Amino acid sequence: MESGEPETAFELLPLIRIYKNGRIERLVDTDFVPPGTDPLTGVTSKDVTFLPTFGVSARLFLPNLTHSTQRLPVVVYFHGGCFCTQSPFTAKYHNYLNALTAEAKVVAVSVDYRKAPEHPIPTAYEDSWAALQWVISHLDGKGPEIWLNKHVDFKRVFLAGASAGANIAHNLAMVVGDPDCGVNIDLIGVALEHPYFWGSVRIGKEAENPVKARLFDQLWGFICPARPENDDPWVNPVAEGAGRLAGLGSGRVLVCVAEKDVLRDRGRLYFEALGGSGWFGVAEIVETEDEDHLFHLNDSEGQKAKDLIRDLGDFFNRDMPPSLLL
């Protein structure tokens, strides 16, 4: 007797399932929270479409201002979700960006890049680059978005992201460092929260967690079928033949890792490689003990999450070292 259930063609648990009839089922964080004013933080948010041809949008976050002409750092933020799930509009990311915006006193632009498998890599990079260009288009105060025209200090531009979003932030910073990128961006810093980097050879904690390691072994080829190798420079920035980290186009980098995260040692390796690459900037690393991947999104009211948000706020508001201003 035949079952009425469609037959599964592929699944990457616990994230996504694809059926032979073409239907795609995302299994986590599919909720939608509308923008507005958050009663807990006073942060106001709204949604904008910056690539109307493809319907690609972002959610903007504005903290309470001490005066109407106040100018703040801008953080272009990229959510996680393994390039195939989640968005800025889920409760997890909406609430986190409210907390981060309030603590750091920044204008945040949380980008809803298109996702695999419908839109494989490099679409997420291309959408995210378009978002950064759109933000920078307000430099002369005549862009389409009033919050960016009135309240952003374009001498303090940052990229940040969680997991896959941290991967995007790194790869965009590499583009910014290319003198032929075609866009004049004064990128002060990049904050990487539990960055998704990987490789073909196990390191550190990866060997201790074979279930999660197998998930990441499969993931890159699923989201980037055109360049499926786990040592591709987009996913393994320290692989042999990858672009030199010395070309990273940012003056400061903050790498955040968690002790129990299977990705922890990739973050550490990136930090160490950056420091020895000849890159001209200043790198920092923060490790949270006894916590796992993206713990701060799952428990934003916990003390360790608040500590990490405070560290990010300090990073976004710290003055550049004098040697990097020359």
Fold and architecture overview:
The protein is of the alpha/beta class and 326 residues long. Helix 1 packs across helix 8. The strands form two sheets. An eight-stranded mixed beta sheet has the order 4-5-7-6-8-9-10-11, with helices on both faces. A three-stranded antiparallel beta sheet has the order 1-2-3. Strand 9, helix 5 and strand 10 (252-258) form a beta-alpha-beta unit. It has helices at 91-104, 123-136, 146-151, 164-176, 210-223, 264-275, 295-298, 303-317, and strands at residues 8-12, 16-19, 24-26, 44-51, 56-62, 72-78, 107-112, 152-162, 187-193, 252-258, 282-288. Helices cover 28% and strands 22% of the residues.
Which characteristics define this entry?
326 residues, alpha/beta, 8-stranded mixed sheet, 3-stranded antiparallel sheet, 8 helices, 11 strands, disordered C terminus
